[in-house]
Amino acid sequence: MSAMRQIRSKRKWVAKVVEMYERPLVAYARAKIGDVERAREVVQATFLKLWQADRARVEDHLAQWLYTVCRNGVIDLVRKERRMTPTDTSRLAELEHQGTSPGEAAERKQAIGKVLQAVETLPDKQKEVLRLRFQAGFSYREISEITGNSQSNVGFLIHTAIRSLRGELATASE
Amino acid sequence: MKLDIDDQRLTAYALGELEVAEREEIEKALAEPENAQAAKAVEEIRSTAGVLARAYRQQSAESPGLDRARQAALEQAGQTEDEESRPSGGFSWRRLAFALGGTFVVLLLVGVGLVSFYGDNIRAMYSSTSNSLAGNEQYPGMVTRQDQVYRHRSLKSFGPQAGAQGYDGAIVASREAREQFADGDPHQPGFNTESYDHIVENKFKEVAQNPLSTFSIDVDTASYSNVRRFLAQGSMPPKDAVRIEEMINYFDYDYPQPEDEHPFSVNVDVAEAPWKTEHRLVRIGLKGREMDWDSRPASNLVFLIDVSGSMNSPNKLPLLKQSMRLLLGKLDERDRVAMVVYAGSSGLVLPPTTCDDKMTILRALSRLQSGGSTHGSAGIKQAYAVARQNFVAEGNNRVILATDGDFNVGQTSHGDLIRLIEKEAESGVFLTVLGFGMGNYKDSNLEMLADKGNGNYAYIDTVQEAKKVLGHQIAATLVTIAKDVKIQVEFNPSQVNAYRLVGYENRILAKEDFNDDTVDAGEIGAGHTVTALYEVVPVGVEIDTPKVDALKYQRPSETGAAAGSGELLTVKLRYKQPQGSKSRLIERPVVDRGETLRSASPDFRFATAVAAFGMLLRDSEYKGSATFGMVGDLAASGRSDDRYGFRAEFEQLVELAEGR
């Protein structure tokens, strides 16, 4: 992103990166690890690593770098704690709303809830590649680099996941 | 080749992941009738993909970010790691750094709404609807478009993009596409489906060949608030989003009230063009008769509200509701309000209700929830039907359309939508279009609707803008005092060599259209000001215009007696009464008194500042010696009466643009 490349100061650049990526990364980490606080731990550690990284080398594939580091951070944390809580749909109820009416919040929960509830029933590996593809927008190749799966494996996981969801979501609101 | 509906390649194909050879193979196969099932499967995959992307995007936007403690800790870490190199200063570098510094702090405090630095008032507006920073809007639901977007940069709907503040699934998914935008593009790449009609700037025309210039007036202001939105978010607006006339018309100017029988006054002044001082600038200003809101005619208003899924984010439906509430505060028992929504199915959610019963109306408003796809044409038909059924003679009958413009044009073709709105406009019901949102903002649709529908068009990016359009400018927004207003200027060839109309590119009319009352043009609301600028090349100053061959069957026309009058030009206007069908004519000759910028009015200087700003944002070939610094100086010298601070805000925008 050229506009970001033009930011000379590393401090300001990192601030901009934080601003852009903190929410999706926290969402991503939270989906893997279960709760917000630990997700934030991991995401902060990711950004701290960004500080120490060589900007010129990271900049070219910034998103991929962030997600990879974040993912590894989750794995490390879990290894340290030796457990991983499964995500549960009740946390959807915690989602913060800013300045919306109860009606809007409820409606929104309903729509997201249905789709994401269906996703929750999928195996972890499928869930992860779905998120990397449709939340973060990575290509098969990038997903394979982040997760360590082969590209054809990634394709297979996504194919299977979508096939499972297709029927259920065919009637979901657009 | 027969394809199995469970073939993994179908998914890869649907998501744009196949290499060229394989993709073409599958594409060919899908065209075969034997693979109809497989083709259907591909559609389902794409639709599922779209739903997933939307769901994740939403979740991402609502996801908490880092807490304040951690953000502060990160900043601390930054102090020790900082490698910032500050070049030794000139004034402009300091300002740049200062503006960037302000940006940095506020962006870190997103969601907290702190205002502390210069240039932050604007961003404070945005941080209070902080989720608007969290990202792009509606994934179009069809991955196909995404594929095309990656491969064809020239697609109109994929303009340079700004709304990618929050990272989400909208960011380009393949390295290849990212690289397309890696260089030289001051705009952030990202997935965006905003659409703007392309503008080809008006060129200089020789008076000898083109003595008449004809155009329709325009009171829309959407382009200015849209440009403001981009700049406040830290990006440059797409060039086609910059409509100079709308930017100039965003501001009120101090023209006198009309004194005669016409509903608006006509004021013309002439001075130097700051970006090329050998050229003159002619400013034509119209001022609509002010109306005391309390003595307004009865209103019959139908809110036509887009509640489709794409309206879900905080800077759309919630802001829309807030805007409607503001409007409601200005209405009373004289006025009747009805509400039609369109999404999935359309429906009358509130029958016409007089505004002394605010509770019923507010309740209907708060019950609005988004979901479903946009069935715009059905909604439009229904809203107009309700308006017609409750038509108030001599009153103010209007449909107020609130949307992000994202109609499912699959249902209705673009041309059909135009014809529909033209037909509905014949009923004498006027239209106000209020645009909301970003990322999939369909400016081109909305402008077209307002244009064809006898309407005006504003872009509501913040509550402050809602307060302007529906608060203190409500009379102008809602009450039309003259319609089909056209301007025709005849230039005097003994005084003028060539001229150029600044802006109004999509409002140009043929010279015959001026006297043709069947040709539609713009509307003026009570108290509206409308300003148009011509850049004029006086006789004696050279200009390079394409040469036209001498005519074979006619001799060049001679100048008439009036050419010796010393007049620079004559401005003619035609307008109709709001419910009338026959136009009336106003004529004003204009003499150039040789004013300089310094002797011109502050308003004149300010208008030229805005024009120059627009030209810089478009990187116009006519910008001459204009610079952001010049714009800032002109604006400052044109500050005069700035009751609501809009002019001060403009100066902040100039700083932001300069710093990009």
Description of the molecule:
The complex is a heterodimer of chains A (174) and B (660). By secondary structure, chain A is mainly α. Chain A has two domains: 1-85, Orthogonal Bundle (Rna Polymerase Sigma Factor, Chain: A); 102-169, Winged helix-like DNA-binding domain superfamily/Winged helix DNA-binding domain (Arc Repressor Mutant, subunit A, Orthogonal Bundle), CATH 1.10.10. Helices cover 74% and strands 0% of the residues of chain A. Chain A has nine helices and no strands. In chain A, α3 (36-52) packs across α5 (62-81) and α5 (62-81) runs parallel beside α8 (140-147). In chain A, 44% of the residues are buried. Chain B folds into four domains: 8-63 and 139-180, no CATH class; 68-76 and 90-134, no CATH class; 205-291 and 481-543 and 563-659, Sandwich (Immunoglobulin-like); 293-478, Rossmann fold (3-Layer(aba) Sandwich), CATH 3.40.50.410. Chain B has helices at 8-14, 20-31, 36-62, 68-81, 91-108, 120-127, 143-151, 175-180, 222-232, 244-249, 317-328, 358-366, 376-389, 414-425, 443-452, 463-472, 474-478, 602-617, 628-637, 646-659; strands spanning 205-206, 212-216, 264-273, 276-288, 299-306, 336-343, 345-354, 396-403, 430-435, 455-459, 480-491, 496-502, 522-525, 529-538, 567-576, 584-591. Chain B is of the alpha+beta class. In chain B, the strands form three sheets. Chain B has a six-stranded mixed β-sheet with strand order 7-6-5-8-9-10, sandwiched between helices. Chain B has a five-stranded antiparallel β-sheet with strand order 1-12-14-4-3. In chain B, strands 2, 11, 13, 15 and 16 form a five-stranded antiparallel β-sheet that branches.
